[in-house]
Amino acid sequence: MQSKLPNIGTSIFTVMSQLAAKHNAINLGQGFPDFPMSAELIECVNKAMQSGGNQYAHTNGVPLLRERLAEKIKYLYDVNINPETNITITPGGTYSIFCAFSTIIQPGDEVIIFEPAYDSYIPNIVFNGGIVVPIELEFPDYTIPWDKVKDKVKAAITPKTKAILVNTPHNPTGRVFTKDDILILQEIVLSNNLYLISDEVYEHLIYDNKQHETVMKYPDLFARTFVCFSFGKTYHCTGWKLGYCIAPENIMKEYRKVHQFNAFGCDTPKQIAIAEYMTNKEAYLSIGAMYQEKRDYLRGLLDNTKFVRLPSSGSYFESYRYDTISDEPDTVFAERLVREFGIAVVPMSAFYQKSTDHKVIRLCFAKVKETLDAAAACLQKVH
Ligand code: PMP
Ligand code: GLN
User: Fold this and answer.
1) Which of 90, 143, 265, 375 is the most exposed place for a label (fewest CB within 10 A)?
2) Do 245 and 355 fall into the same domain?
3) What's the 3-state SS for 335-364?
4) Global pTM?
């Protein structure tokens, strides 16, 4: 068979989780909470199943769930979203992003992404026949080099640049977009007639009194945008694989053509359950403070180690430099951490297409205190 993804291996998350299991290590690698999700939400699923919500849901998603999402967006961001025409429920955030790429990419189209980047973007673009144009965030602050982006877009002789993907709060760095970032992005997108894919799965995981700047608040920019979300992050149920995409009607029309003959629809009882549970605003309003406490707790534990923190104000990740400890490549160092110290992390180079090793590891702090204590005890031994 001729591979459609000849240069793609196994996801780093699978690799590190398997390695953690093999060595019985603490797993701060793959991002997922190790604490239970809401028992009340589980009860809502039971109820939905028992009252017969077990057949295909509407292809665009359970109507009540879409209505509740529109109400939530109005409440949080004061933006009017039409549940009929602007929202599609998807089997997870990753799928939501994949569908967006599939909707717009024609063979040979270029898509700008920023590296380090969540690991599904590049294979998604390549699979759809697109060409990845990676631009590196500036180490160690991980800011976007906007001038470079403008030059890149300007330098396209034929208008091959089709889209830009942005992610805020950002995985893996925890960087959060400011209003200025969005205004510059808007200018680039509009003046070059691009599409934007905005990965906002960590919208509620934001700290230090920062506000999530959703692209939906900028009508001219939103007119060319797919915004992708994940219920897995919001309700601590990454295994549910449920998310959604929000886009203007003309864009959503095309998106739904792709979705309807791909997944067609998503898990019915969980959609019904979330629709019911979503009226509890506290469930999502409280998670910023809850995760900030975890981040700060881990920070405190690692303060006296030789790891040097690269600050994060969003997502459930924080990164640390280890160049005062070792000059091993980050993949080698990460593997050694599992084998010798019993702790799994993610080497930052996994989020770059071409080998880029700043000697940084990413830790996931979505864990109970006991796990963070145990993880820190391992990391404190690394000199
Ligand atoms: N985007 C980013 C940046 C993520 O970290 C994740 C989490 N895996 C996703 C998208 C996808 O979310 P989901 O698990 O719902 O597919
Ligand atoms: N989003 C999570 C991470 O970045 C895990 C995603 C996955 O396992 N596919 O670690």
Assistant:
1) 143
2) no
3) HHHHHHHCEECEEHHHHCCCCCCCCEEEEE
4) 0.97
For residue range 286-314, list pLDDT tens digits in order: 999 999 999 999 999 999 899 999 999 99
Distance of CA 167 to the CA centre of its chain: 7
Which residue's CA is the closest to the ligand 2 atom numbered 7? 13
Is cis: bond before 219, omega within 30 of 0? no
Q: What is the pLDDT of residue 157?
A: 63
Length of the chain: 383
> Residue 108's pLDDT is what?
97
Q: Which whole number is the average pLDDT over 135-143? A: 94
What is the 13 CA–ligand 2 centroid distance (Å)?
6
Q: Which ligand is nearest to the CA of 364?
A: 2
Q: Per residue in 339-362, pLDDT tens?
A: 999 999 999 999 999 989 999 999
Residues 335 and 294 in one domain: yes
Calculate how far, in angstroms, residue 344's C-alpha sits from the geometric centre of ligand 2. 14
The rounded distance, in Å, linking the Cα atoms of 340 and 378 is 9
Total domains present in the chain: 2
Report which secondary-structure segment, H or E, holds 162: strand 161-167
CA distance 100 to 225: 9
Report helix angle 369-380 to 330-341, nearest 10: 110
SS3 content of the chain, % helix, strand, coil (to 5): 45, 15, 40
CA distance 206 to 220: 25
Which atom of ligand 1 lies closest to the CA of 238? 14
Residue 281's pLDDT is: 97
**Domain boundaries, position 141:** 39-281
| Ligand 2 atom index nearest CA of 17 | 8
Q: What is the pLDDT of residues 62-84, one digit of tens each?
A: 999 999 999 999 999 999 999 99
Ligand 1 centroid – CA 358 distance (Å): 24
CATH code at position 158: 3.40.640.10
- Domain-located, residue 264: yes
Asked if the structure places residue 7 within a domain, the reply is: no
- pLDDT class for 156, splitting at 50, 70, 90? confident
